[in-house]
């Protein structure tokens, strides 16, 4: 049985007669290095495939007056992401005033799926009330290789439902993951010079006292000789 995996671009989906659909994928030749023979063996054979986008699309609400997101996030020293309340919202909450309705617009954004996956596997991703209890852990297990069917069985839902839920969760957590990733990059950048400095530190030189002791020992040896 042959098995290959590669990243590709979906170039065309063509609806054909007799209920058939033709899907055209474009693959970088370097990604198929050493796999062409296995791929050729699959021609006209039934294969099992799963397509998953490497990018996650999500929407961000934008204040047209400032052209900035209406919701922003911060990361503490432990990597925990939390929402930042704007000053008007804090004042309204303190005074018990009704929340001001500001017209907003939605802006589509994209983020690498691997960034969200790393955020989730780090254990920093939150659970949201519209998802099943401990759902981030189920997503983490899927990222680590467990099947949709096994996880769906534990949640007592269909495989199709859990796929939809995970897609929704990825989109929901995307802005938090984006903020966390920027924080992580800054942390790594700060740690790198310290690591380099430790590795570049010169070896300890012998102290004058050690040198004197060594000279005395050599004089004694010569005297004995």
- Let me know the number of strands: 7
Task: Tell me the β content.
Answer: 15-25%
Low-confidence stretches: none
Spatial ordering of strands, largest sheet: 4-3-7
User: What is the ordering of alpha helices and beta strands?
Assistant: EEHEEEEHEHHHHH
* Count of separate DSSP helical elements: 7
What kind of sheet is the major sheet?
Answer: 3 strands, antiparallel
The percent range for helix content is 40-55%
Q: Name the shape in a single word.
A: globular
Content-based structural category: alpha+beta
Mean pLDDT: 85
Determine Rg (CA atoms, Å): 29 Å
Task: Describe what you observe in this structure.
With 225 residues, the protein is of the alpha+beta class. It contains seven helices and seven strands; from the N terminus they run ββαββββαβααααα. It has helices at 36-40, 87-95, 113-121, 135-143, 148-155, 159-200, 208-224; strands at residues 9-16, 20-26, 55-63, 68-69, 72-75, 81-84, 105-112. The chain has a three-stranded antiparallel sheet. A two-stranded antiparallel ribbon has the order 1-2. Helix 5 packs across helix 6 (159-200). The longest helix has 42 residues, at 159-200. The protein is globular. The model has no long low-confidence stretch (mean pLDDT 85).
In short:
The protein is an alpha+beta fold and 225 residues long. The protein is built from seven helices and seven strands.
